[in-house]
Amino acid sequence: EVYFKNLSKQKQKEVMEKNGNNHKLRVCVATCNRADYSKLAPIMFGIKAEPQFFELDVVVLGSHLIDDYGNTYRMIEQDDFDIHTRLHTIVRGEDEAAMVESVGLALVKLPDVLNRLKPDIMIVHGDRFDALALATSAALMNIRILHIEGGEVSGTIDDSIRHAITKLAHYHVCCTRSAEQHLIAMCEDHDRILLAGCPSYDKLLSAKNKDYMSIIRMWLGEDVKTRDYIVALQHPVTTDIKHSIKMFELTLDALISFNKRTLVLFPNVDAGSKEMVRVMRKKGIEHHPNFRAVKHVPFDQFIQLVAHAGCMIGNSSCGVREVGAFGTPVINLGTRQTGRETGENVLHVRDADTQDKILHALQLQFGKQYPCSKIYGDGNAVPRILKFLKSIDLKEPLQKKFCFPPVKDNISQDIDHILETQSALAVDLGGTNLRVAIVSMKGEIVKKYTQLNPKTYEDRLALILKMCVEAASEAVNVNCRILGVGISTGGRVNPREGIVLHSTKLIQEWSSVDLRTPISDALHLPVWVDNDGNCAALAERKFGHGKGIENFVTLITGTGIGGGIVHQHELIHGSSFCAAELGHIVVSLDGPECLCGSQGCIEAYASGIALQREAKKLHDDDLLLVEGMSMKEEEIVSAAHLIQAAKLGNTKAESILRTAGTALGLGVVNILHTVNPSLVILSGVLANHYVNAVKDVINRQALSSVKTVDVVVSNLADPALLGAASLVLDYTTRRIY
After folding, report:
1. pLDDT digits (tens, 9 = 90+) for 262-308
2. Distance between CA atoms of 535 and 550, rounded to whole angstroms?
3. How far apart are CA 297 and CA 715, in angstroms?
4. In 3D, which of 318, 319, 309, 262 has the Cα closest to residue 285?
5. How many Cβ atoms sit within 10 Å of the Cβ of residue 21?
6. Is 476 found in the same domain as 348?
7. Which of 120, 170, 546, 659 gets the most CB atoms within 10 Å of its CB?
8. Same domain, yes or no, for 696 and 669?
9. In whole angstroms, what is the distance from residue 457 CA to residue 510 CA?
10. Domain count of the fold of the chain
11. Residue 73: how many CB atoms within 10 A of its CB?
12. b/e map 692-704, b = 16+ CB within 10 Å
């Protein structure tokens, strides 16, 4: 109990020890233009404020260094950041070829800079062609990449560039729930995705309290009132330059006709911008009494201008993202932001043949006030990002892994498939589902069937027989020869007789059940039965991390906590088949009550049921949901909600998960001191959430002789089914069991 209380005091020490006692994370932030700096600056201020954890290097390139675009590197210097390197990477021409040449020039210049800096991680923002050059250089030079604002959807070439950077990046900070889901759908590792919100919102949500009238007068004139002017910001669409220039021309015509004071910002450096500037000059915008044309407005002042404008018009992402924080009306023109999530303040004009459509939109929107929108952030993005940076383990392999969805293999016509594949029929009896699969000798799941597990013994046994008969028939069609049936089930099992002695409370009417006889009689095949924890250990021994390891332990972290012990290559069952009930190791004399009737078991702290119990308590006290979370009224509170809340910064949820991980770690320490394995494998849905906590507890609590034990997360997609298959397949290769 004293140990648990001291956990919070150890937090800062743990972070430093993770990457070496005195190692600070060296972070390179590269900024290319005024827009990305507005998102990166809050992060840079946060990094600079914690010198005990970070070293900051700033690299400036792109349009920051071009006079026609305002020499915006000066605002970085005004923010008191030391610029380590300035790279002139823009090839002038403002056409498609110039963009390609600019990427190439950046790729030529960046390696020398990165070789000198040797950052641990590079932070790259967004979807610009400059950012693609940065990400490509860092990836090829084995530098970890943190990508800001990945997973979003918009129009033009930006989508392709953004998603390309996502595939190069090792870590992702996204702004919305939809963006997070897009990243997961793109096969990115969920554990390396942070839903933080947009960093610029940390500034935006406090911006309206500042003095703004002096800023408005400075940029628009002394006689201008709030809500009585327009901010216009329009960029070329690189995939349809001709049409975007035409729309810009119509926009200026509509603004001239609308006859309101308007601040027009010059477009960005993309292909087509030169033609847009020509249109502005042709129409005399720079000398028109109603217009103020500027190359750049500092972000702090720009916030005030859009916050108090009567309307913003154009196709900048700022209009559909940041401006929603103030409820300022926005007219989004064309396809450049198609797919972006927007608040109700945004009116879309997808296409315009004449100025009339744009003029009508101005008449509808100008001067309105909409509710403020927080789709893109709640003002707490930077603390979340800094915490995420501190959690990065530089000892982890640099090579990123993709989480591909299962794909059905086609049976090709080669000799290996023409001949029958020796296989097992695997059965997994869980608390919720009953699953049957055909598993090949190589551990490939050829076919899988899933049904809800019936509540009564008779219905359950009948369904097992029906599914096994169906799977055995299908095996013929897929050229598989079934060698036997392996059954994985919860509870205590006598594997010699194939009898379930008694089960957990999750599976009702499942005590003193002979599974071997009826299934063997029906299918005329040999049948093996064992506990699900033991099966998981067998799966690791045959197909996973335990292959070739003499002594190891597997821990299942799921609805309950179970496991299996392999000693001298053989599974330990114990004198009464009760060995490896690892979930019922007691780690606290007066801890929470366990389903077994005892108190303080690992399972009472770290199982899915235990986490669900704690989540319900928080929910009942209105302490579970934080910004970025939502629950339907009929939705059942689960452990997943607790984990989600912790990821979003809920300190109480974090504390519960930390305690659960510590309890599991103490249990593992007891196992190490008892059977002294050389490897501990964490399996199940909660394994990734606990592995670091377990390692930390071992490092602090275990005897020095066992501290070097390897603790890994299982890489098996379905250990229960693979373990059940191993019962059969080990027999066919004459392994002693």
Report:
1. 999 999 888 888 999 999 999 999 999 999 999 888 888 998 999 99
2. 17
3. 51
4. 262
5. 8
6. no
7. 546
8. yes
9. 7
10. 4
11. 21
12. bbbbbbbebbbee
Q: For 625-628, which contacts have Cβ atoms below 8 Å and span 24 or more sequence positions?
A: 626/650, 627/197, 627/374, 627/378, 627/380, 628/177, 628/195, 628/197, 628/378
E strand spans, 515-665: 527-531, 552-557, 561-567, 570-571
Residue 446 lies inside a defined structural domain of this protein: yes
Residue 186, in any domain of the structure: yes
Instruction: Collect all residues with Cβ–Cβ distance below 8 Å to 407 and sequence separation of at least 6.
Output: none
Domain end marker among 503, 520, 544: 544
Give the list of residues 6+ apart from residue 503 with CB closer than 8 angstroms, or none. 489, 490, 491, 492, 510, 511
Q: Which domain holds residue 151?
A: 21-204+386-391
| Distance set, CA 554 to CA 64, 249, 548, 551, 700 (Å) | 54, 68, 14, 10, 21
Tens-digit pLDDT profile for residues 165-201: 999 999 999 999 999 999 999 999 999 999 999 998 8
**Per-residue tokens: 324:** 């929603």
Task: Tell me which residue of 413, 417, 454, 412 sits closest to 433, measured CA to CA.
Answer: 454
Helix (H) or strand (E) holding 261: strand 261-265
Residue type at 392? Answer: I
Residues 566 and 588 in one domain: yes
> What 3-state class would DSSP assign to 585?
coil
Are 483 and 346 contained in the same domain?
no
Domain match, 325 and 435 both: no
What is the C-alpha to C-alpha distance for residues 564 and 663, in angstroms, rounded to an integer? 18
Give the neighbor-by-neighbor strand order of the sheet with 492-494. Answer: 492-494, 499-502, 513-514
| 499-502/492-494 β-pairing | antiparallel
CATH number of the domain that 137 lies in? 3.40.50.2000
What CATH number is given to the structural domain containing 450? 3.30.420.40
Per the CB < 8 A criterion, the answer to whether 30 and 126 are in contact is no
Torsion over CA: 411, 414, 415, 416 (sign): negative
Tell whether residue 601 is among the known ligand binding residues. Answer: yes
User: CA 70 to CA 62: how far, in whole Å?
Assistant: 12
Residue 342 within a domain: yes
**Which sequence positions are flagged as catalytic?**
532
226-250 pLDDT, tens digit per residue, is: 999 999 999 998 888 888 899 999 9
Choosing from 500, 518, 544, the residue where a domain stops is 544
Q: Distance (Å, rounded) from C-alpha 241 to C-alpha 96?
A: 10
Q: Please indicate if the annotation marks 354 as binding a ligand.
A: no
In whole angstroms, what separates CA 128 from the centre of its chain? 22
584 is in an annotated binding site: yes
CA dist., res. 326 & res. 331, Å (int): 15
Judge whether 360 lies within some domain.
yes
Token pair belonging to 149: 């604002």
Cβ of 48: how many Cβ atoms within 10 Å?
Answer: 16
Is 492 marked as a binding-site residue?
yes
Name the pTM for this structure. Answer: 0.53
Considering the domain architecture, whether residues 141 and 273 belong to the same structural domain is answered as no
Is 468 labelled as part of a ligand binding site? no
CA neighbor of 177 nearest in space, from 380, 326, 382, 341: 341
**Torsion sign, CA atoms 37, 42, 43, 48:** positive
Exposed (0-12), middle (13-18) or buried (19+): which is 159, by Cβ within 10 Å? middle
Q: Do 159 and 45 share a domain, yes or no?
A: yes
Return the closest-CA partner of residue 37 out of 4, 3, 70: 70
**Sheet containing 25-31: order of strands:** 83-87, 54-61, 25-31, 121-125, 144-148, 171-174, 193-195
The CA distance from 14 to 700, in Å, is 10
Do residue 123 and residue 193 come from a single domain?
yes
Q: Tens digits of per-residue pLDDT, 609-658?
A: 999 999 999 999 989 988 888 888 788 999 999 999 999 999 999 999 99
Structure tokens at 407: 């794909």
252 vs 285: CA distance, rounded Å = 8
